[in-house]
Each structure stands twice: as C-alpha cells, then as structure tokens.
Amino acid sequence: MSDKESKQKLSTEPYKGVRDFYPDDMAVENYIFSVWRKTAESFGYQEYGASVLEPTELYKAKSGQEIINEQTYSFTDRGERDVTLRPEMTPTVARMIAAKRKELRFPIRWYSIPNLFRYEKPQRGRLREFYQFNADIFGLDRMQADMEMVMLAYQIMKSFGLNDKQFEIRINVGVNATKQDAETLMKKLAAVGIKNARFDEEIVRGMEYYTGITFEMYDTGKDNPRALFGGGRYDNLLDIFGEEKVPATGFGMGDVGIKNVLETYNLLPQIPAPADLYLCPMSEKEIEYAEKLAQNIRDAGARVIVDYSGKKVGEQIKYADKSRIPFVAVIGENETKTGTFKIKNLSSGTETEATAKTAASVILQ
Ligand code: HAM
Prior knowledge:
Radius of gyration: 26 Å
CATH class of the largest domain: Alpha Beta
Bound molecules: histidyl-adenosine monophosphate
Shape: elongated
Distance between the termini: 61 Å
Low-confidence stretches: none
Helix content: 25-40%
Largest sheet: 9 strands, mixed
Order of helices and strands: HHEEHHEEHEEEHEHEEEEHEHEHEHEEH
CATH superfamily of the largest domain: Bira Bifunctional Protein, Domain 2
Number of domains: 2
Oligomer: single chain
C-alpha cells in the first residue's frame, strides 16, 4: 500500500441501500415492531425466526424470476455451497413447516419480523435491506383464513393510528379463484366493518407460488405510491419439499413504507427519553454514593443515569434537560449524610423530597 492510499480515510456511509439505526431511529423501529407484535399476538399468532442464510436453491423453484435473477445477494461459501441472503421469508417458513409437518398441530398461525435483502435500486419506500412483518396461516384452505389476513393487516393500520380514508386494500382473484370468490370476500369484509377494500384486477404479485386470492395495501395519498403490504394464498409451496399439500395464506409488510406513511400523517410517537432520573454529584466525592443510590432506585423500577463528567451541576442539569430526561437530583455532601435529596421535575420546576426508598415512586407516579 502506498503512503497516499494508507492515509485515505474510510467512508462513514453505510453500504448502499442499507441503514444505520441511531438510537432515535431504533426507537422508531422498535415502535413499529411493537405494533406488529401486539396486533399479531392479539389474533393468536406465535413468533418464529430463522437465519438470514439459506441455500440458494430454496428460491429457485417458486420465488419470482425478478427476485432470483436480479435481486438476490448470493455467494459461494468456503465449502462450495451456493448461499443466498434471504430476499423473503415465505420459502423459509414453508421449509420449517415441511420439516416438522408430522409434529405440528394445524392450523398454524405464525408471525416473524426478519430482515430481508434485495438488490433493488434504492428509492423512496424500497431499500436493499429492510425488515418485513410476515403473518401466515398453514392448514386452512377456507376463505375465512384469507379474510383473517386482510383483517389482521387492516387492524395493524388502525393500531398505527390511520383512518379508513388514508389506506386502501386491493384484492385480486388470482389464477384458481373466481370473481365470485373476490366479491364474496369483499362482502364478508364489509360485514366485519372493513369498507376500504376493493377488487382490483391489476394486482399482479411478483412471486410464482401464489395460487388464489392475492391482496395489497396502499396509502391513498400521493406521497407513498408503493404497496405497503402484499400477500395471498399459496397452496402448493410446500410441494417443493416433497410433502403433501399444506394450504397456506399470508402477507408481508415492510418497515420502510409504513415509516414513510407514519411520517406523512404525523403519526410517529415521541422518542422516549433514555432515563427517568439524572443524578448530579456536586463533586467527585459524591460519585460513589450516587452510584449506590442509583442502583437502589433502578431496583425499584426506574431508569437512572449518574453523571461522571465532573462538570458544574448547572452543566449536568443542562445535559439532562437536552436529553429529555424528566427528573434530576443534585447529590452534595449534605445529601450523602442525611440520605434525603430533592427530585426536581425539569418541565414544571417542582421539587419533591425523597430517599432511596421513595425516589422511584416520586418519578414513576
Ligand atoms: P412482497 O410483495 O415482495 O411479498 O413484499 C411485501 C412487502 O414488503 C411490500 O409490500 C413492501 O412493504 C415490502 N418490501 C418489499 N420489497 C422491499 C424493499 N426492497 N424495500 C422495502 N420494503 C420492501 C413478499 O415478500 C411475500 N413473501 C409476502 C408473503 C408472506 N406472502 C405470503 N406470505
């Protein structure tokens, strides 16, 4: 390496089309995941997971040609195996169900939130690594199962705070279903209060495994024109493992699109503060006492940070305020002797006398 090359600085940019999640971004991700989890679990779905690495052949049979030929991250490992970073979860979950088909109790309702990799042109709503909520039912070939999928997706949008006018569910009949099936479905959906679903023959899903009804969800505004979720019935996918037929239906919903929608409609919650209480030692001498005190208050359920900066108390309080930490307490010599200290609420300015025992209840009231 030449001198010039060795001095070149490395870029701090992440790889093209993937994201770094700084704590505020992570808080948003966690919020999105929590809505997915809570809603799926309210319908009785159980979470599963798997590795990002899969044998490439898993996708050859039934994932769409576009995904296989143009969008996979594939490589040959040191043992000459063809490996792919999963571009979708459906073949993985089908493999898992097929592997334990005899032990599992059907019907099965499962969900997952995997990160997926697709070599796409990065653009608004589409990245090269994204998280995708998946919900699937195995072992039910009845329309009620497809309907439950639409109901779950609808409920997720409601849980995010969207109203019926802000999104729309588009349903197509697919190859083996009839128009009659799609109407019937629409009527049943209307009967359970879902009125923003409509029949749309233009819905064409990229994957080759769909065998019946397919559906997608769209934001009705102009800012986010891409599908927010997509799915449908796939009754033949487990055949690729040489197993008997297992009817299946499900959908996937990405984190990128819904985050854009929540931003558009101003529906993202406030980023939570990192702690409830910030302890400000007056000098180095009080740090050890503050550390012990902090642990006592943590044990009672509050989130506590001790300042180690050695800066003036005023500076410490400023840092707490800027970090949106709602309470501070200054620990000086007097406080270490008496065991009592004042907890100050930074937004109202009120102060409450507390001890190690009572502090948590003052903060968490
Ligand atoms: P999909 O239509 O390829 O279906 O993806 C479903 C959703 O994932 C899309 O509507 C979008 O929200 C999100 N998505 C897809 N590609 C990207 C990307 N490059 N960047 C960000 N978000 C993206 C499937 O993946 C099926 N396996 C879904 C399924 C589950 N079918 C049955 N069960």
